[in-house]
Amino acid sequence: KATVSVLYWFTHQMLVRDCFVCDSHDERDHAPKPSLGTKQLLGVLFVGTVGGAYGIEGCIKTAGPLNTLIGIAFLPWLWGLPSALAVAELATMIPSNAGPIMWINVALPEWATMLAVLWTATLDVVDNSLYPNLFADYLQRFIGISFATRILLQFLLIASCALLNVAGIDQVGSSGVLLMVFSVLPFLLLFLCEAPRMTSSHWGDTPTTVDWRAFLPLISWNFSGFDNAGHVVEEVSVPGKTLVKALVMLLILSQMVYAMPVLAGVSAAHGGDEGDYSEWTDGYWVPVAGMIGGTWLEVAMVLGGAVSAFGFTVCALCTTSRAFQGMCTLGCFTASINKTFGALHPTRRTPVNAIVLNAIVTFALTVTMNFEMLVSVEQVLYALRLIMVLCSVVVLRVKHPSLHRPYKIPGGIAGLVAMISAPILWACIVVVGSVTADQDSFDSISTILIVTALVAYLSTRVHQTPFDGKIVSLTLPEMRRLNLASMPCHFV
């Protein structure tokens, strides 16, 4: 009995566990309500990541049907799946609505965290502003609208999306499921209508000159955004199971949603013997629908485009507003900004101030956007941040092996490194291709990267207080003595 007592005492005194601690804020003000199940999370992620085949027309224009179909077949598994699994491990291990920023913060130096903050802020601004323009482009293709009407419709779209986000993420998740169905339905009808007369003779078309530098960021953009799951992980019920199931289902669904309309669309509106696909620009699904099914399908495609744009906007505001709120809880800005935009509504538990600011900035920038250039800029920043996120998984495996991981990528360190090598290599290819696409791209992207790097370095030299959120190693008695159970942290 004495031996057992000594061993029991020794084990509980000396057993050290790694704990993720975020302790500078009051749990009552910063703890969201976990209310997203698998279907709701899938709705949020699908509408915010895929949302139908709207926007993939440019891939067919720049690289032809064959290269687009090859990208659809392989990219989700080489780029999307490893990224999704890495996000699942990180998000369940370090559940914070700061998402990638918090993961980078606990794994990499402070300047890297600030760089991630700046890149994420730029990404959010760019991404949010793309979808209202996509919404207006599809209406323009069908009925033609004046500039004033275009601005009014964009304002109403953003305002309604902001109000839905203020109402709560469970409403966003439920609406996401419905939006997912309505945005996919026109493409399903397109495929079914063309199926009896579908021909594969032009599926292998490749333009004489493939614009790889434009194609790579476009096809990557269509399969990007899986790390958005990190921005809502605190609001996911049973994230260890829910997150993985939703991400795998999203990958499979995205392949189907992109492949079917491309096969049907190229069958009906191919480039002829010359392989000319120059007309395949944003909004071209509308005339393709008219060719296949007539006016009724054309109307359905326009409505689907509007629904998809609404879904993209509502989910983009959802994830990016929570990302900004997460930055504030992390302590990335001044005390007044952190307090104002890091707070949640007392009853709805939504970041109302962050949502309102996000909507205002999105509307202000929506009217002056160049789609192709902005996709290139966004993909460079997204790819660089993704490299940091993937490196964070390896760093945390090595430095903090005892940290609780509800989901863990199998295969040990060697398997993990092998798995993330493909997306890191693809990210590097996208960065190089986008930066060297033309002189304007080189100048714009180089300027953004240099400025953000300088600001990150200088601000962390001045910023004396570390960002909130860290991993500490404590014995069980120390954890009890510090009363960690009453703190807004996540540990075992």
What does this structure look like?
The protein has 492 residues and is mainly alpha-helical. Helices cover 70% and strands 2% of the residues. The chain has a two-stranded antiparallel sheet with strand order 1-2. α5 (100-107) packs across α15 and α9 crosses α15 (371-399).
List keywords for this structure.
492 residues, mainly alpha, two-stranded antiparallel ribbon, globular
Reconstruct the topology from this structure:
Layout lengths: L1 H13 L1 E6 L5 H4 L7 H12 L7 H37 L6 H8 L2 H33 L4 H21 L1 H26 L17 H11 L16 H30 L16 H9 L1 H36 L4 H8 L9 H15 L4 H29 L12 H24 L3 H24 L7 E6 H6 L11
Antiparallel strand pairs: 1-2
Helix pairs in contact: 3-8, 3-10, 3-12, 4-9, 4-10, 4-15, 4-16, 5-6, 5-15, 6-7, 6-12, 6-14, 6-15, 6-17, 7-8, 7-12, 7-14, 8-10, 8-12, 9-15, 9-16, 11-12, 12-13, 12-14, 15-16, 15-17
State the gist of this model.
The chain is an all-alpha fold and 492 residues long. The protein has helices at residues 2-14, 27-30, 38-49, 57-93, 100-107, 110-142, 147-167, 169-194, 212-222, 239-268, 285-293, 295-330, 335-342, 352-366, 371-399, 412-435, 439-462, 476-481, and strands spanning 16-21, 470-475.
Fraction in beta strands: under 5%
Major beta-sheet overview: 2 strands, antiparallel
**Count of separate DSSP helical elements:** 18
Q: What would you call the shape?
A: globular
Order of helices and strands: HEHHHHHHHHHHHHHHHHEH
How many β-strands, per DSSP?
2
Label the structural class. Answer: mainly alpha
How are the strands of the largest sheet arranged? 1-2
Instruction: Write down the overall mean pLDDT.
Output: 79
Stretches with pLDDT under 50, minimum 5 residues? 7-16, 24-31, 484-492
Percent helix among the residues? over 70%
**Terminal residue distance:** 28 Å
Q: What is the gyration radius calculated from CA atoms?
A: 23 Å
